Amino acid sequence: MEGVTFNILKGVDWAHSQAAFIINMSFAGPRDPLLSRLMNAAAKNGVILVAAAGNAGAKSPPLYPGADENALAVTATDSRDRVFKLANRGKYIAVAAPGVDVLVLAPGNSTVMTSGTSVAAAHISGLAALAMERAIKIDAAAFRRILKESASKLQAPPNSVGAGQADALKLVEKAAELDPNQTAQQ
């Protein structure tokens, strides 16, 4: 376990030191004080930190880094906008995204169907990149705000989907409104 933690810390530190704008953390586990400190430093520099909410079920305690105050915790939904049955629940969930039976790349030049909050977190990281393309100067606080404002409300139990289902079109439109003079060249 220590080797995994060390590699995660190295990876987050390296991404931050290389001026990454978005860091996706598609893993979940217990709170790690060192990772929390690194995330705090990255967040202070405006880095968007996206994390999986966890796949330990509705009765699980909050998992990290998703439950960290600097992270955007993402849960997974299926094609009918229902919460993934193994997804964690809690007030720390920021938003939901597709994450059930998603076709992804796999080793051996193949693809597989997979499910989980990690898949949904990757989706939100991609949306962060799209938002950044529309508003170059967007930071973590602005992204969090427009992500939540643009989310579609879902019929779901309390504390299960945060602000709702991420809506890519509404998000990109809100990003473009932030500073029309700062949008990327087409």
How would you characterize this protein structure?
It is a single chain. The model has no long low-confidence stretch (mean pLDDT 93). The longest helix has 18 residues, at 117-134. The protein has 186 residues and is of the alpha/beta class. Helix content is 37%, strand content 17%. The protein has a single domain (2-182), classed as Peptidase S8/S53 domain (Rossmann fold, 3-Layer(aba) Sandwich). The chain has helices at residues 2-17, 33-44, 117-134, 140-150, 168-178; strands spanning 22-25, 48-52, 72-77, 93-98, 102-106, 110-114. It is globular, with a radius of gyration of 16 Å. The chain contains five helices and six strands; from the N terminus they run αβαβββββααα. Helix 1 (2-17) packs parallel to helix 2 (33-44).
Defining traits:
186 residues, alpha/beta, Rossmann fold, four-stranded parallel β-sheet, two-stranded antiparallel sheet, 5 helices, 6 strands, 17% strand
Secondary structure layout plus pairing:
Layout: H1 2-17, E1 22-25, H2 33-44, E2 48-52, E3 72-77, E4 93-98, E5 102-106, E6 110-114, H3 117-134, H4 140-150, H5 168-178
Parallel strand pairs: 1-2, 2-3, 3-4
Antiparallel strand pairs: 5-6
Helix pairs in contact: 1-2, 3-5, 4-5
